[in-house]
Design goal:
- This protein has 11 helices and 9 strands.
- It has about 280 residues and is of the alpha/beta class.
- It has a single domain, classed as LmbE-like (Rossmann fold, 3-Layer(aba) Sandwich), CATH 3.40.50.10320.
- Helix 1 runs parallel beside helix 3, helix 1 packs across helix 9 and helix 9 packs antiparallel against helix 11.
- It is globular and about 45 Å long.
- The chain starts with 6 loop residues before the first strand and ends in a 5-residue tail after the last strand.
């Protein structure tokens, strides 16, 4: 398994190019908000409007966890996914280029960790049923590597709040990132969960995840009327992914707008979930 050593990119790179250099913890890039993205698109898809707002206020850093290249020959399921994305010879490279462009649109700094996507982790996940099912026991050690790397970034960047995926949709990589909450909260951070999109548009997907917290989560709705177009522009950067991601939902712009209006009761908004403070 790769070490998870991160690479960091700037926030003004064109779609046709990208560059990565090791994170220099002696010269930290301060950011009030740190967003954990399982894959190279999840944060922009789910809460790009809030990322843009945070970037304007005090800085936003988006950390994509499962952004590593395959370390071995692709299994049949991974090859199938590549075909759906357009027969890409270097799928991760193309997705990184798309992500760099999206982060430029949002105005966010970004970091790619080298942990491999679930479809690249040997033969653990060989179908959609497995990809959206329980996390395999063989995957348990990966959380230790992720938390170690994130801990170093947090000490360098010193954010006041961190955004994690809620895990709506039950994708195994989203579940792994969502489960980091308990360990990250010990660092004194304000932890918020964002609603994974477009999975959150599936009936009961959000409710199912929230119910696991036994009434301990409280919603926080953020108006994104001024950044909805920015979010949509960032989403359009993921050209190789959109037809697959939205195949069960509809036209991306329409689906995003409709859901954002439903969350904001007519106004464009994004919803987050916070752990309720315990009564003294």
């Amino acid at each position: 398994m790769p070490s998870g050593k991160p690479s960091i990119g700037g926030s003004r790179l064109p779609l046709g190019s990208f560059e990565t250099v090791p994170v220099d913890v002696s010269n930290p890039v301060a950011a009030d908000a740190l967003f954990v993205s399982p894959h190279l698109d999840d944060v922009a898809l789910s809460c790009g409007g809030t990322v843009a707002l945070e970037a304007r206020r005090g800085g936003a850093l988006v950390v994509t966890v499962f952004a590593g290249r395959p370390g071995e020959a692709l299994n049949a399921f991974a090859r199938f996914q590549h075909e759906r994305w357009g027969h890409l010879d270097d799928a991760v490279g193309e997705r990184r280029r798309e992500d760099a462009a999206a982060m430029a649109v949002l105005g966010a700094r970004f970091t790619w960790l080298e942990f491999p996507d679930a479809i690249y982790r040997g033969n653990l996940y060989l179908s959609d049923d497995e990809l959206f099912g329980p996390v395999k026991s063989e995957d348990a050690p990966i959380a230790d590597g992720i938390i170690e790397t994130l801990g170093g970034l947090i000490r360098s960047v010193r954010p006041s709040r961190i955004y994690l995926p809620l895990g709506a949709g039950e994708h195994v990589d989203h579940q792994i990132c969502s489960a980091l909450e308990a360990r990250l909260r010990t660092l004194g951070l304000d932890v918020l969960f964002y609603e994974d999109f477009p999975y959150a548009a599936t009936p009961d997907a959000v409710e199912k995840r929230v119910a696991r917290w036994m009434d301990r989560l409280r919603p926080l709705v953020v108006s994104i009327g001024e950044t909805i177009e920015t979010r949509l522009a960032a989403i359009r950067c993921y050209r190789s992914q959109l037809s697959t991601i939205f195949r069960h939902y509809g036209q991306p712009d329409d689906v995003v707008r409709e859901f954002a209006r439903s969350v904001g009761a007519g106004d464009y908004a994004e919803r987050f979930w916070q752990i309720a403070q315990e009564e003294p």
